[in-house]
């Protein structure tokens, strides 16, 4: 692989202070592009005949508008809450935490739980360098707990530490896994920790082998655990370094912008919706419990169609569910930054589909059991966010279905009017995202819309195939089938049948709600069978 430095745009890794702040991203070029975009939308409104209020499809427009008001209202609720957290609540936390750090408080020991599997050497060395920088700046002893499946990674890390960290009190503990999978690696590391004198108030940083810490990432998290004795876990900000196609880099950056907005909104309630596996910091009191370890290494779901099956990925969702179940406080630290390195070969389509299926599958597999805990285990807002995740996968598909129906009724001019509506509405949402993005990207409105459509479609597909899992990050794991080929074929056929029924019902409910068709009355049904 070519050296990663070739792909480090604007020195993002080597100079983390580069990031644009405040209004610096709103360059004259960006403002000009936004003006041109809005001007084109205005010209389209003046030129294209408005068929949205055609008498034949007026009901469709009202339904699309109602859904839009609901979804945009929910979006701006998150934006308002994120602003409160980012500008009022978190700065007070940050100030108090910094005072604790400046007054000399330090954790007894810094623990880094890291898993990796045949990672590129350039990336691994950058990751380890970022860890030893945190240990050196904190001036406390540190241990890297490496969950490893191959000597290739072990040699790279041990040699690098010997060269670069010989002056530090840092220990590398290698736990070679004897069962494949990231979950097994984490479970073995946690068991080793429980036997090695890790104390319940020690702080443990969970991180992936391709996550590069920005300077100060860990030191910004740890004082919060001293400040809030009931805090059990926190997760951090992420940015992506994409070694691959430009379009997928833009898509990932847009998703990380969405993540920042959502995380800050959720954290206002003292909870988050995931403790990101890329990097999260935990108080060790729960990590050393057998219940926590077993949930991580053997988390499973019993499904009416697919039976009992284990989860491959989604360890961050398992840790989150455990904390949620035990009513633990969780926070998001927006100024603790790290860099996710995505190495994508080819055009990236296959990787994008894999990511969608993995993210959506993890959310669906954990969403139901989290919702079943009820609002008594979490703030009502967080519980409703879980409910909304299930609703949005269906409501997002209603609008395009309605637009297609209206196009068949009144002609292609309705479709053009609908596209103008999409262009303006998604630009409005993107203006909020620009606040959380490192750069103003004019493709965000359409990437956002396509992301919503594809994500909703993948969720509808996955909800009836929760056992189907594939994870290329840890040796190209796939879910194994239990039972005969006949049983597997029957299950796949049933999943196809359930998906078809769901899609048909979505279509029929949409048509009925838009008053395009009526539900047959009993008299009509009897008449159809000759009993009238």
Word description of this protein:
The chain has 532 residues and is of the alpha/beta class. Among the domains are: 106-379, Spore Coat Polysaccharide Biosynthesis Protein SpsA, Chain A (Alpha-Beta Complex), CATH 3.90.550.10; 481-532. It has helices at 28-47, 58-102, 121-138, 151-164, 182-194, 217-227, 246-267, 284-287, 290-298, 315-325, 349-373, 380-410, 412-436, 444-462, 485-513, 522-528; strands at residues 110-116, 142-148, 170-176, 203-208, 211-213, 231-243, 279-283, 300-303, 307-310, 329-343, 470-471, 477-478. Strands 3-2-1-4-7-6-10-5 form an eight-stranded mixed β-sheet, with helices on both faces. Helix 3 crosses helix 4 (151-164), helix 7 packs across helix 13 (412-436) and helix 12 crosses helix 14 (444-462). The N and C termini lie far apart (75 Å).
Structure summary:
This protein has helices at 28-47, 58-102, 121-138, 151-164, 182-194, 217-227, 246-267, 284-287, 290-298, 315-325, 349-373, 380-410, 412-436, 444-462, 485-513, 522-528, and strands at 110-116, 142-148, 170-176, 203-208, 211-213, 231-243, 279-283, 300-303, 307-310, 329-343, 470-471, 477-478.
Give the key terms:
14% strand, 532 residues, eight-stranded mixed sheet, Spore Coat Polysaccharide Biosynthesis Protein SpsA, Chain A, single chain, 12 strands, two-stranded antiparallel ribbon, alpha/beta, 57% helix
Low-confidence stretches: 1-17
By CATH reckoning, the class of the domain at 106-379 would read Alpha Beta
What is the first-to-last residue Cα distance?
75 Å
Major beta-sheet overview: 8 strands, mixed
Average pLDDT: 86
Report the order of strands and helices. HHEHEHEHEEHEHEHHEEHEHHHHEEHH
C-alpha Rg, in Å? 25 Å
Structural class: alpha/beta
**CATH topology term of the domain at 106-379:** Spore Coat Polysaccharide Biosynthesis Protein SpsA, Chain A
């Amino acid at each position: 692989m070519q050296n990663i430095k070739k792909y480090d745009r604007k020195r993002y890794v080597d100079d983390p202070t580069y990031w644009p702040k405040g209004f610096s991203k709103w360059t004259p070029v960006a403002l000009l592009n936004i003006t041109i975009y809005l001007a084109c939308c205005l010209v389209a409104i003046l030129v294209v005949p408005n068929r949205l209020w055609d008498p034949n499809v007026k009901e469709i427009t009202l339904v699309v508008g109602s859904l839009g008001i609901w979804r945009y209202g929910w979006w701006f609720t998150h934006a308002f809450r994120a602003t409160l957290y980012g500008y009022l609540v978190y700065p007070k936390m940050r100030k108090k935490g910094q005072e604790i750090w400046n007054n000399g408080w330090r954790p007894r020991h810094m623990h880094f739980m890291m898993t990796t599997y045949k990672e590129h050497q350039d990336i691994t060395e950058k990751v380890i360098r970022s860890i030893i920088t945190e240990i050196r700046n904190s001036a406390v002893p540190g241990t890297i707990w490496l969950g490893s499946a191959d000597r290739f990674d072990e040699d790279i890390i041990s040699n690098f530490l010997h060269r670069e960290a010989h002056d530090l009190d840092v220990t590398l503990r290698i736990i070679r896994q004897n069962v494949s999978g990231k979950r097994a690696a984490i479970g073995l590391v946690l068991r080793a920790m429980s036997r090695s004198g890790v104390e319940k108030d020690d702080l443990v940083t969970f991180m992936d082998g391709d996550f590069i810490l920005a300077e100060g990432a860990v030191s910004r998290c740890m004082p919060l655990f001293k400040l809030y004795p009931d805090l059990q876990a926190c997760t951090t900000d992420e940015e992506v370094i994409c070694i691959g196609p430009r379009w997928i880099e833009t898509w990932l950056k847009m998703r990380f912008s969405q993540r920042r907005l959502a995380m800050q909104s959720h954290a206002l309630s003292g909870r988050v919706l995931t403790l990101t596996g890329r990097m999260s910091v935990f108080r060790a009191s729960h990590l050393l419990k057998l219940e926590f370890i077993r949930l991580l290494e053997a988390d499973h779901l019993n499904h009416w169609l697919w039976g009992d099956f284990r989860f491959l990925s989604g360890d961050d969702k398992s840790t989150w569910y455990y904390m949620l179940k035990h009513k633990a406080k969780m926070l998001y630290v927006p100024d603790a930054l790290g860099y996710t390195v995505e190495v994508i070969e080819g055009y990236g389509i296959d990787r994008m589909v894999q990511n969608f299926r993995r993210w959506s599958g993890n959310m669906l597999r954990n969403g139901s059991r989290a919702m079943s805990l009820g609002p008594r285990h979490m703030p009502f807002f967080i519980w409703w966010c879980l409910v909304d995740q299930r609703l949005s996968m269906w409501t997002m598909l209603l609008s395009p279905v309605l637009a297609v129906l209206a196009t068949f009724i009144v002609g292609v001019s309705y479709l053009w009017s609908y596209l103008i509506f999409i262009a303006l509405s998604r630009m409005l949402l993107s203006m909020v995202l620009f606040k959380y993005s490192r750069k103003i990207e004019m493709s965000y409105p359409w990437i956002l819309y396509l992301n919503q459509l594809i994500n909703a479609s993948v969720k509808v597909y996955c909800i009836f195939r929760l056992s189907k899992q594939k994870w290329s990050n840890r040796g190209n794991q796939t879910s194994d089938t239990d039972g005969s080929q006949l049983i597997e074929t029957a299950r796949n056929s049933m999943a196809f049948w359930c998906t078809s029924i769901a899609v048909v019902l979505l279509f029929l409910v949409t048509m009925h709600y838009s008053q395009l068709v009526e539900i047959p009355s009993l008299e009509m049904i009897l008449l159809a069978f000759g009993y009238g």
